[in-house]
Amino acid sequence: MHLLTNPLLRYRWGSGDLLQRLLGVPTDGHPLAEVRIGAHGEESSQLIEGGHAVRLDRFVAAHPAATLGDAATRDGGRRLPFEARLLATRAPLPLQVCPDATQARVGHAREEAAGVDAYAPQRLYPDDSARPGLIHAFSGVRMLAGFRPVPAIHASLAGWDLSILAPIVSALTQAGPGDELLYALTTLLASSATKQRQIAGGLARAAREHPEHPDAGLVTLLAEHHPGDVGVVLALLLNQVRMEPGEVRYLPPGMIHGYLSGMGLELTASSGNVVRAGLSLEHVDLRQVLRIAGLTVGEPPRLEAVPDGVASVFASPAGDLGLWASPGAPGPVPGPAHGPRLVVCLHRWAPEADAGPGGRATVSLTTDTGGMTLSTGQSAFVSAADGPLRVRSSGPVLVAHLPQAR
Q: What distances in angstroms separate CA 39 from CA 7, 129, 269, 370, 387, one per listed residue?
């Protein structure tokens, strides 16, 4: 068991105070967007081994059997199979879509054969793995995710009464049953960059002139941060999802999504395969979006909690991601018993809430190999060789794990 030191990422969409309060660090007027927990390559967490700081990805690669256990048979046996992020947003994040396993293998092989540099901005498939995800809301989380029903899309687009939107509206109405989304998405994303800027600009003006339109607030928000961006238009094809604190949703490969506001923990499979679909200053590849986006209607599935004593367990449909969540218990209570685990200590679901002495929560962890105490915002890596985990806490604790290894 090892205490982790995690990279703090200060993207412009981050919050000015949410993560700072959670971590107990002073606010400095600059946004803090992410705390990355896991083996994220160059942005990997670090631990202390033999008196020296070591990146977690290198530690796992050097001790695969001890750290991963049965999971060492996956991905060549030297990579942590999941990674986590604490997210706090005050502005819209980029829209993105992640490939499934087959798309990832094909895309990775294509870029390798073409000799695309591993760190090139246009590199979309740095590995050959799918990247499903879960999002656990701490505060209320708002996001765009999955396609709206075709009638709702038609009502929104036609309701603006803009001639510049007519080709997309026509694509919806002229396509055969089941092809409406494909035709509308292709009409939008295959249009020229100039045309996309014109549509986004026209929508922004219409939203200012017609604030009564149901989507006027969304368009205004997105256009304020990303004027002229195709994502302003694409957003009208997507569901506006609101999550309550404690709610968990599944983000499958192929689902276009992006967060608008709120705070939570995102757990994903270990992969860097992300294709941006708009609302981004980074490389956007709309052809790849058309290739890998799933064209089914629906919001991200809400995952039902499976009771585990005082805790709840959430698992992805494929059983490749698991999240054990305890609201706090004087314990000790048994946590996930096998495989690699990432443990995160919180305090209640809102960082401004009091929990424990001085408003801080504590989590005491014990395994067959020893014990450790974490305070709010701290995290730990528990190896497969550490054995069963027992948890005593004065506030919430989350444990990422492999559900089939429980």
A: 11, 15, 11, 23, 21
